[in-house]
Amino acid sequence: xxxxxxxxxxxxxxxxxxxxxxxxxxxxxxxxxxxxxxxxxxxxxxxxxxxxxxxxxxxxxxxxxxxxxxxxxxxxxxxxxxxxxxxxxxxxxxxxxxxxxxxxxxxxxxxxxxxxxxxxxxxxxxxxxxxxxxxxxxxx
Length: 140
What we know:
Layout: H1 14-19, H2 24-41, E1 45-48, E2 52-55, E3 58-61, E4 67-70, E5 73-77, E6 82-85, H3 93-100, E7 104-106, E8 109-112, H4 120-137
Antiparallel strand pairs: 1-2, 2-5, 3-4, 5-6, 6-8, 7-8
Helix pairs in contact: 2-4, 3-4
């Protein structure tokens, strides 16, 4: 029996999700990032699962046969950070990260504490480059 993907696009409200973030500063930072990325990419933010705000979508299929849909890029408010879901490969990734500001890496995720720690122009460029890479990689 195939396992079902838990992180699927839902009809849940992004605004309702943001309202659940109890830390006011983190809530405002997430809202600002969502607005910046939506404006820069023209993708409407949508909820994926219970806690990921995603932009666009693509279909993936692994050699194992497992397949599904995922957001092209996204973010989530986690207990210790704002987590940015960008691919681990995209144009100028390493040099952009050097200019990005204070962050931590974990797999394909980039963790930030607050908006003031980063360069938002670099953030936008990384989101655009990551989305472009995924579209090309998956021939969307």
